[in-house]
Design goal:
elongated; mainly beta; DNA binding; 4 strands; SpoVT-AbrB_dom; two-stranded antiparallel ribbon; 0% helix
């Protein structure tokens, strides 16, 4: 059985806001998706498409050695194959 709550609309800056009861268990800053269908509104937590930053993970595994950068040397390229001169223009 679902619960029924009352919420109040108020002005916040140039927008309207909906004050939701704490009993819903929502967290401040949570993103929600709001849908309107013929005057009926529904909302649900937004899909979380967050990307994980793994840039600081290398220090977590001290036995992992960084790969040598030798394959990234700036070797001469055959620009003529692209129809360009040696300057790349």
């Amino acid at each position: 059985m679902s619960e029924e709550y009352k919420a109040k609309i108020f002005k916040s800056g140039n927008s309207l806001a909906l004050r939701l009861p704490k009993a819903l268990g929502l967290k401040e800053g949570a993103e929600m998706t709001l849908r309107e269908d013929h005057g009926r509104f529904t909302f649900e937590p937004a899909q979380n498409d967050r990307k994980i930053d793994v840039s600081k993970f290398a220090g977590k595994v001290p036995w992992l050695e960084p790969l040598p950068r030798e394959d990234f040397d700036d070797s001469p390229r055959d620009w003529h194959l692209l129809g360009r001169d040696a300057s790349g223009a």
